[in-house]
Amino acid sequence: MKIAVLGAGAGGTAVAFDCAIHGHEVRLFDFPQFSENINAIADRGEIVADGDIEGTAGIAYAGHDIDKALQDAELIYAVGPAYSTEPFGEAVAGKLRPGQTVIVTPGSCGGALAFKKAAGLAVEDDAVHVAETSTLHYAVRLIAPATIRVFLKLKAGNLLAALPNTRTREVLKLVADVYPSMEPAEGVLQTSLQNANPIIHPAVTLSNAARIEMTGGNFLFYEEGVSDSVGRLIEALDKERIAIGEKLGITILSDPELGMRQGYMLENNYGTGYRNAPGFQGIGAQPQLDHRYLNEDVGYGLVFMSTLADQLGVPVPGMDAVIALASIVMARDYRAQALRTPAGLGIANRSVEALAAL
C-alpha cells in the first residue's frame, strides 16, 4: 500500500518506519520550518530504529512537497501534537480524493473534527474517511536525525474511531497488519477523552516547575517526577475525565488501568504505578516549561475537556485549577486562547445524545 505520513517528529518518524518495515511504500512530509530530521531521512533514504521495534527501513520520499507526499496515497497519517492538526488539514485541503483514508494520531481532543474543518470537509462527509486514535502507538524519542529509540510499541489499548463512526471497522482493517492491537472506539469523543496526556503531563510539570527551570530538566520525568502527592493530583484529574465520559454514556478507563493493558504500567496505582512503569523508564523531563506538556496538554487538551464539561454540566474543579495555575506560571491565558473547544469545532450546540453519537 502507498502511505503518506504527515509529520516528521518522533511520532511521525516511528509511524513511517513501522509502515515501511511492514513492506508499504512510505512518503514522509513536513513543513520547511521542521527540516533537520526530514532532510536527514531524505539524504539517507531510510530510518533507523532501536528498542521495542528495530531495524532499518527505506523511505520512498521525504521532504516538503505535499503533492509528492500524497502521490497515489491510499492511507494518510497526520502525526503530531495538537497544534499540527489544523496546519496538516490546511496543507491537504482540496487535494484529497474520495476513498482515501486519513488517520489523525493521536487525536489530541477532537483531532478528527479539527482536521476535517481545516481541510474543508463537513463533519458528516465520508467520501474521504477521516479517523483518529486515542494516543500515539509508541513511546518514542528522536535520538539523532533519522534515528529513533522506541521505548514501547503498544500491545493493546489504543482506540480508533472514524468520523462518522460507521467507517471505524473499515479503517481498522486497513491498518491491521501494522497495528493488529488497535481497538474500535464508540466514537471520536471516546478517543478524545481516553487520551490521558492532558491528565498526566501538566500535573507532573507544574509539580516539578522549579526543578525543571533550575536543572534544565535534568531528571527522569516519571521515575523521579511522580511522587505520591503528584499521583493524587493526576488521580483527581483522571476522575473528572471519567465523569465527563459517564455523562456522555461513554466508558473511559482510568489511566493506570489502561496503562497496564497497553504495556506501559505494571500496577493500578497513580504513584508507584508511574514510577515503576517499564514503558516510562528512562524518559527525561523537558528542558523548559515552555513546552508541549503545558502548551498542548493544557492549551488544547484540558481546555477542551473543561469546556466540554461545562457544556455537559459536569464540575471539573481540578482541571480548572490546573488551567488557571498553568496560565499564571506561563503568563498566558490558556482558557481565553480557546485553541480547541466544542465551539471552535462546531459541536457546541449538540445534545448529549448527538455528541455521544459522533
Structure summarized in a few sentences:
Helices cover 44% and strands 16% of the residues. By secondary structure, the protein is of the alpha/beta class.
Structural write-up:
The chain is α/β, with parallel strands linked by helices. It folds into two domains: 2-193, NAD(P)-binding Rossmann-like Domain (Rossmann fold), CATH 3.40.50.720; 196-356, Orthogonal Bundle (N-(1-d-carboxylethyl)-l-norvaline Dehydrogenase, domain 2). It has 18 helices and twelve strands. The strands form two sheets. An eight-stranded mixed beta sheet has the order 5-2-1-6-7-8-11-12, sandwiched between helices. Strands 4-3-10-9 form a four-stranded mixed beta sheet. Helix 4 runs parallel beside helix 5, helix 8 (197-207) crosses helix 14 and helix 14 (297-312) packs antiparallel against helix 15 (317-330). It is globular and about 50 Å long. It starts with a strand and ends with a helix.
Write the layout of secondary structure elements.
Blueprint: E1 2-6, H1 10-21, E2 25-29, H2 36-44, E3 46-51, E4 55-58, E5 61-63, H3 66-70, E6 75-79, H4 85-92, E7 101-105, H5 111-119, E8 129-133, E9 138-144, E10 147-153, E11 159-163, H6 168-175, E12 183-184, H7 188-194, H8 197-207, H9 209-215, H10 228-248, H11 255-262, H12 272-275, H13 292-295, H14 297-312, H15 317-330, H16 334-337, H17 342-345, H18 352-356
Parallel strand pairs: 1-2, 1-6, 2-5, 3-10, 6-7, 7-8, 11-12
Antiparallel strand pairs: 3-4, 8-11, 9-10
Helix pairs in contact: 4-5, 7-10, 8-10, 8-14, 8-15, 10-14, 14-15
